[in-house]
Amino acid sequence: xxxxxxxxxxxxxxxxxxxxxxxxxxxxxxxxxxxxxxxxxxxxxxxxxxxxxxxxxxxxxxxxxxxxxxxxxxxxxxxxxxxxxxxxxxxxxxxxxxxxxxxxxxxxxxxxxxxxxxxxxxxxxxxxxxxxxxxxxxxxxxxxxxxxxxxxxxxxxxxxxxxxxxxxxxxxxxxxxxxxxxxxxxxxxxxxxxxxxxxxxxxxxxxxxxxxxxxxxxxxxxxxxxxxxxxxxxxxxxxxxxxxxxxxxxxxxxxxxxxxxxxxxxxxxxxxxxxxxxxxxxxxxx
Length: 286
Fold this sequence. Notes:
globular; 11 helices
């Protein structure tokens, strides 16, 4: 890792560094995400196919003006549908937390020439899962209150708390302390941070759009519910595999840039945090 990365970076430089790390470690990053999101995709397909509405052909009152049967769902089917959707949503949320934490561990390792495998990083994420879930719950509640207070406060908090996850993972500050630490580190840097997050959101939207566009053409040529369900699951999983590592890389760069600006952070400190020896070529900040 070049020590020059640990100096205050401009918006474009932060995005550039994040993309370089993303490309350099994409193999491990993609595996870490795929291992947790692909099972969720399978679950989503099963939920979709198991809750297809049944058609009552014998009921003349359940037909459209064109004479076609109207799909109906009885109470039991509706309960199964809602239960399946809820389970899939919860499992998907858990998978997202694990994938994000694992990606952050992989990205952070590049700063000290430490190259954890996707297995190492997932084990690290699992150890932190309970704290991550509590942090995300507080984040969500804070965002909800902020949005109810005329949207603006919610937008502010989203950016101000954007590095709370790396704070938790690296500094072991939990819950409200992680949120407060994130806000403190980004004080005076709200607009540049928002700019980086917007740029990455646009990149993620483009990547996801490409996948959905390609698979959309395949699904459009089929009338099969199975093909539609599988195609949708593949599109969602593919988008996550591409965009989750990029988002984690950008968040990591924002976090370390804030440490450099606020506290003169260097590679020796980072290496000590990981319990490894710092790279020998680092003598200080460039």
